[in-house]
Amino acid sequence: MILLLPLLGLLALRNRGARAEWTSPLVYPSPQGYGAADWAQAYSKAQSLVAKMTLEEMNNITLGVSTANTGCVGLSGSVPRVGFPGLCLHDAGNGVRDTDGVYAYASGLHIGATWNASLAYDRAFYMGAEFRRKGVNVALGPVVGPVGRLATNGRNWEAFASDPYLNGILGAQSVLGLQKSVIASIKHFVAYEQETNRNPITNGHDGVVHSTSANLDDKTMHELYVWPFQDLIYAGAGSVMCSYNRINNTYACENSKAMNGILKGELNFQGFVVSDWAGQHSSLPSANAGLDMAMPNSQYWDKDQLARAVDSQTMNRTRLVDMATRVVATWYQFGQDDTLFPSTGVGMAKDLLAPHTFVDARDPASKPSLLDQAIQGHVLVKNVNNSLPLKSPKVLSVFGYDAVAQTSFDPGEGTFAQNWEAIGLQQQQFQDLASNSPVSSAPSRFMGTLIVGGGSGSNTPSYISTPFEALQQRAYQDDTVLFHDFTSTDPGVVATSDACLVFINEYASEAWDRPGLADQESDQLVKNVAAHCRNTIVVIHNAGTRLVDAWIDNKNVTAVIFAHLPGQEAWRSVVQLLYGDSSPSGRLPYTVAKKASDYGSLLTACQAQGSNSPQCDFDEGVNIDYRSFLARGVTPRFAFGYGLTYSSFEYSNLQMSINATATPSNARSAPVYTNGTTGQNQNNALVGVAGLTSLFDNVGMITAMISNTGGISAAEVAQLYIQLPASSTSSGSAATRVLRGFNKVTVQPGSSAQVSFQLRRKDVSFWDTVSQSWVIPSGQFLVFVGKSVLDTPLTGSFTTT
Fold first, then answer.
1. What's the pTM?
2. Where does the signal sequence lie (predicted)?
3. Which of 314, 498, 280 is nearest to 391 (CA)?
4. Residue that wins the pLDDT comparison between 226 and 456
């Protein structure tokens, strides 16, 4: 009887306006954390500490509290009586936001474009140390959801790629780096793939319009959206943030299937689940479904509702104890009880414009990494007749609003990338855009050098230096005549220009989805310059996919660089590439189409269309981005994984050593949490943190030789794609091929290097909806190794029986 009332409340909430074919199963009770793997000592300490707390104190540490003393975006309740100080939670995955004395790191998408796992680790390592010095306990990142279902998603730039594998590998390295200093809260769990209608809104005539329901099947959930989260949990992530959207008509932060069944059950997650800010919509249903902490406050828990529910036996005491224990255990797990850990929020001033103590969190040792991140995330996609690198030009003309800094940088007014003037908005206009109304006039360009996108994932640079400043320094060295016009859409072009550089950008932000994939005024600027300059080079700082069909085939446009969001080193990085001090080594972590309609149904967000219960059916299954293009036979402009260098490479000698065997048809790999089951993981030696441990066993190695046939040292990104046998498609449509490995290697001219790809059991498995387990299919696996998903000079196969 204890769980009856919460379950009935959840059922009623879940079914309001729900479609019968898309309902989320109930999974109760919530699995208790028990200290799996290396969490055992932390749980032992936490259980002892929580045992000293009253029910009200346990209730208190599960929600955010308000304070005038810190700029932390979230501050959990504390229990000073027993020595628990509470936790400072702060944005986000690209650096410490809204403060001073920190660096602005390259964005997630920019790191995705590097295809460099060690660089992802280094970035997170230095970033995490800054969070720690500022007294932050929990860094709200990295982002691996959205996965990139929609080309116009306003938050794609926060994640690493439009691919679960690349997100998983780079995200896992980011967790490892961050957690050398603080707790990582990985987000947004799960199937959070649009900003439009992300939050419920009150409709004066018809009541509440609920958040969009992401409707998807079990196979798609596991193989696409849960996939990267599993990798990050395996890396030891201490916290998971549940998302704003509904999943099969139940809000993510009260979805028992997602949190109890998948996250805490199948993946055996030992840390705590925190809501996205104001993402909680119920009291007992959210708690019983697996939510452990509500942020930034909670109207549902802030009056001791959970403690009273335990007293009245409408909630199991074990659930409240588990909530508190998970929070405290995570604090212990990452050594934050140490007296050397900075006091909570010590460097996070509430108001930067008011007198405050300056806490410098920067480490000069991170500067080489900051520059390396910025350089490696640039992707050269066109270079006709070796227009780049520049060769000491006598006359150089520079155009475009993105070449110079925005006119003001006032950290007191909020995040750098949401400066109203810089995106042409007034505050009221921004608030209108951030509502759930369909966006038709959102800003698509940023008036100044764009180094990061907008919203909670933005960051605060120590300084803003621009491409034009670096070009001026280079002009001084080379005695180049430098002309410029940063304001006109149809500038005059000096006829003697050896080259014309055009700097434009494509802006995106949390709170709204992009109205399109190209800014018309920026395109017109490129066309106007190219009409008068035979060597027009375009640099685009882009917060997501950017179409170039308006001018890419113009013979006067000789080179194009997708510069992404490089952080505060935008100036030095791009000029080093333009002049050949470094060879471009970035590759696209998404697909660039020839035209917008080529994305089909995955171009724009689902709309409410007058319904109080907006629905979005993920009918494409696992086939997003390049998988969708392959499945539909559509040829892109630039393929996933594509990018040029200043050298050339050849591939040879594909070798495979595979020891994977097909999973017997009657085998079930691990227990599946369904309604009424609990405690299975603790007694199952096959299960560890992130679920079935054997999924991460190596089952094969594939190698190839890469030869630099050009004249300079350069880096090549070798990529491995695999097509699973037809037997893996029994539960849904399979992609033609999927990324299952990458290796970035620098090779000297005339030399060769071997690249290797390790295959995990997970990489050759599919999710079988019948047995509810990961299965290696029997049959022939096709292997593709090359420079992009469409350029794979080496092919082969292996067979499992």
1. 0.95
2. 1-20
3. 498
4. 226
